[in-house]
Amino acid sequence: MRREHHLVPTESSPTSTSRRGFLKSTGTLAAAGALSGVALPHVHAASGDTIRIALIGSGGRGTGAAGNALSARNGPVKLVAMADVFPDKLKTSYEGLKNQFGDKVDVPEDRLFIGFDGAQKAMSVLNKGDIVIFATPPAFRWPFFKQAIDKGINVFMEKPVAVDAPTAKRMIELSDLATKANIKVGVGLMCRHCRSRQELHKKIQDGAIGQIITMRSYRMHGPVGSAFSQPMPDSEDSELLWQIRRFHSFLWASGGCFSDFYIHNIDECCWMKNDWPVQAQASGGRNYRGENVDQNFDNYSVEYTFRDGTKYFHFGRTMAGCHDEFASYAHGQNGLAVISSEGHWPSKARIYKAQKMTNSEIVWRTGKEGPDQDPYLLEWEDLIDAIKKDLPYNEAERGAKASLVTAMGRFAAHTGQVITYDDYIKNPQEFAPGVNAFDMKSAPPLISEGGKYPVPRPGLLKDREY
Ligand SMILES: NC(=O)c1ccc[n+]([C@@H]2O[C@H](COP(=O)([O-])OP(=O)(O)OC[C@H]3O[C@@H](n4cnc5c(N)ncnc54)[C@H](O)[C@@H]3O)[C@@H](O)[C@H]2O)c1
């Protein structure tokens, strides 16, 4: 295929991409792209018109999100621009989407952008009424969100939307600006769009289990994603790009496995409680570090407290050979609600009239209306519906608060301190203040010493995580 020539660096392996080869392809595409962005006619998407989307961060989830958008039953939707910092990621994503969606993918070579400025260039292709997707590691959300607001385009951004208190606060402020500009914003906490959970939420509000007394959730499985990292191989020539590729390993990029993995359970429990916790205390540690150099613990236990005193416990473990569980529960005075029991979907939400999960005690369960619909598709259809009908729609503040209270639990574990929401939101540790000005030659925000990175030291470092 003709496109391959520009997209793939000369070396076949992504990790062995030489800087020169990478920059060569970067320069070619970026320069061509800049011109095309300027030349495109600016048409306003009106109700009934095709909604055009641009994908920033064409990795696993970004490709999935673009696919969900193109599959929306209330479209039509067309993908018109894509950006990534890695040519191999962009190529794989483009080819996969093109194969699956054909003409709905209208991204000529000069609208495929590579580099840290690719996001802005891809956004420049869009007009008001269109949607930009942010599916990079979350560190880049705030500068990209700001650019989208300045341009007046709608946003779908993946969770988490912030990794620390200063960036969460910034996202809340940006959210206000987005609302004032009538920009519609979806956040990838797709469980909020799960119809079964929505029904369960309503039932809980209507008193189906009485007052919630306690909640608990679990995300326990073997190592996944890039949570654990061996030292950077000598073949890598950019430590920044290597850290981005292994973003779950680094708090600045992802908030670590805590923020990236646990936010869904924490968010769905806070949703059922209709509130955000006011305090957290937590423990955690690393049983098996081996030669790994990342910043994550391999187990975490958090106790969140809500303003009425209700406790919520979350257990996270990234460890092979142990009991696996991925579920959330709410215990009420008059029964038990299963919010999710096998990951994200299907939720298998149900209510028991007692605290024990005995089949004969089930008083309500989902499934009567047919199988649970895919919440990753529903979140897109809800966003598109709001755009087409011009309904108020901005999930950014909620996403920022979910990101903030998740980071608060992680902070409590990493410092070994009890932390309140009011104190945590004032915590000044911003992991990557220069993220908005990165270029291909920038130093990473986290510098290794002897190939190792700073890790949390609970009880020793009490007001910062490393
Ligand atoms: N909602 C969900 O269930 C769900 C599931 C998986 C991932 N996610 C979220 O999606 C995001 C991406 O995760 P992933 O698993 O797809 O990771 P990934 O590494 O597969 O994809 C991220 C992509 O972003 C690119 N990128 C990084 N920095 C960039 C920048 N500055 N500009 C342009 N591109 C950049 C990377 O090169 C990569 O291709 C994360 O925030 C993650 O938490 C959400």
What does this structure look like?
The chain has 466 residues and is of the alpha/beta class. The protein folds into two domains: 4-191, Rossmann fold, CATH 3.40.50.720; 192-372 and 395-437, Dihydrodipicolinate Reductase, domain 2 (2-Layer Sandwich), CATH 3.30.360.10. It has 14 helices and 15 strands. The strands form two sheets. A nine-stranded mixed β-sheet has the order 14-13-12-11-7-10-9-8-15. Strands 3-2-1-4-5-6 form a six-stranded parallel β-sheet, sandwiched between helices. Helix 2 packs parallel to helix 5. The longest helix is centred in the first third of the chain and has 21 residues, at 19-39. The radius of gyration is 22 Å and the shape is globular. The termini are far apart. The protein binds nicotinamide-adenine-dinucleotide. Residues 56-62, 83-86, 89, 116, 118-119, 135-138, 140, 158-159, 188, 190, 244, 260 line the site of nicotinamide-adenine-dinucleotide.
Could you tell me the radius of gyration in angstroms?
A: 22 Å
- Helical fraction equals 25-40%
Biggest beta sheet summary: 9 strands, mixed
Strand order across the biggest sheet?
Answer: 14-13-12-11-7-10-9-8-15
CATH superfamily of the largest domain: Dihydrodipicolinate Reductase, domain 2
Give the percentage of residues in beta strands: 15-25%
Q: Can you count the beta strands?
A: 15
The ligands bound in this entry are: nicotinamide-adenine-dinucleotide
Count of discrete domains: 2
How many DSSP H or I helices? 14
- Helix and strand content put the structural class at alpha/beta
Mean pLDDT: 90
CATH topology of the largest domain: Dihydrodipicolinate Reductase, domain 2
> What's the CATH first level of the largest domain?
Alpha Beta
Q: What oligomeric assembly is this protein in?
A: single chain
Low-confidence stretches: 1-47
What does the overall shape look like? globular
